[in-house]
Design goal:
Belongs to the bacterial solute-binding protein 9 family. It contains eleven helices and ten strands. By secondary structure, the protein is an alpha/beta fold. It has three domains: about 30 residues; about 150 residues, 3-Layer(aba) Sandwich (Rossmann fold); about 120 residues, 3-Layer(aba) Sandwich (Rossmann fold). Helix 2 crosses helix 6, helix 6 packs antiparallel against helix 7 and helix 7 runs parallel beside helix 11. The structure holds zinc ion.
Length: about 325
């Protein structure tokens, strides 16, 4: 008799354990891409927008955030929408983009989803012009590395402009989801407070920078230079593993000499081979910066990346 109860007890415990496991399993199979009932589906175009939105949304529970592209996709130059991207967008209640033409596929998105609310983070932010003064002539037409139009859309590389983007995202989400307006505002303010020290630190580093001429290998660094008082003597845009033509190289050597350039700023996300060769030839030094378009998804990854950039700048100056 007693054994019977023990057996029943064990059986009951087993059933409980199994059902708990089933419930747990169901929970974890609910992957991020699956739409959840009642939750606001927010989609970002690429990494820097994802990190900004992640901080603005914070711990608000019934918001579901998805980054349309992969965390290692990088800048969206020449990005082609995939069927998966279109599917992600089909369930979206809001699409957060940087704007300024960097999402060159936006027309296609709007054609397919004319009712999708789009939050443009760079709204109202003064953009730098794309500088193509370096390589001019017929070779400029061949340089198709960047096709963003006349404005340089990489505003997130200037911390103060990035803070404006965070603010725009908070305002955009608040108008779509007024119930959480206060929380978006508070989260955005808290994030901007965390970004603030980057400004003070940069001012300290660049106080004695004076007229420092640099050459940059991606026009996202134009904002970094602009924010910290460095002069961009030339912009070189390379495609993937492109090499410089003899003409480009000669031009570059001339600019380096004329403007007494000592530093070449290259992007972590691309090969530094060409820059290293130029540096060797010209006696300049190569510094590697992060354009903050890739990462591990950690909400603090922008801050960490920018801190690393500032450490590079400190070393360079
Ligand atoms: Zn770019």
């Amino acid at each position: 008799m007693k054994n019977k109860y023990v057996f029943a007890g064990i059986l009951l415990a087993m059933i409980t354990a199994v059902s708990a496991a089933v419930i747990h399993f169901t929970t974890i199979t609910e992957e991020p891409h699956e739409e959840r009932e009642g939750a606001l589906e927010v989609v970002t175009s690429f990494y820097p927008m994802y990190i900004a939105a992640e901080n603005v949304i914070g711990d608000i529970t019934d918001i579901h955030l998805t980054n349309m592209t992969r965390p290692q996709t990088g800048c969206l130059h020449d990005y082609q929408l995939s069927p998966e991207d279109m599917q992600t967008l089909s369930g979206a209640d809001a699409f957060i983009i940087n704007g300024g033409g960097i999402e060159s596929f936006l027309d296609t998105v709007l054609k397919n989803y004319p009712d999708l609310p789009v939050i443009t983070a760079s709204d109202g932010i003064a953009m730098l012009e794309v500088k193509t003064f370096g390589i001019s002539g017929p070779e400029a037409d061949m340089d198709k590395g960047h096709d963003h139009g006349d404005r340089n859309p990489h505003v997130w590389m200037d911390v103060s402009k990035y803070m404006q983007e965070v603010d725009n995202i908070a305002k955009g989400l608040a108008s779509l989801d007024p119930a959480h307006a206060d929380q978006y505002r508070q989260n955005a303010d808290r994030y901007c407070e965390k970004l603030e020290p980057l400004q003070t630190e940069a001012q300290e580093i660049t106080r004695d920078a004076g007229q420092t001429n640099i050459i940059i290998f991606h026009d996202s660094f134009a904002y970094f230079a602009d924010a910290y008082g460095l002069q961009v003597a030339d912009v070189i845009e390379l495609e993937e593993d492109n090499t410089l033509s003899a003409g480009q190289l000669a031009h570059l050597m001339q600019v380096i000499q004329e403007k007494e350039v000592k530093m070449l700023f290259v992007e972590k996300q691309y090969s530094t081979k060409v820059a290293e060769a130029v540096a060797k030839e010209s006696g300049t030094r190569v510094y590697v910066l992060d354009s903050l378009v890739t990462g591990d998804g950690d909400p603090d990854s922008y801050i960490r990346g920018m801190e690393e950039n500032l450490a590079v700048l400190r070393e360079a100056l």
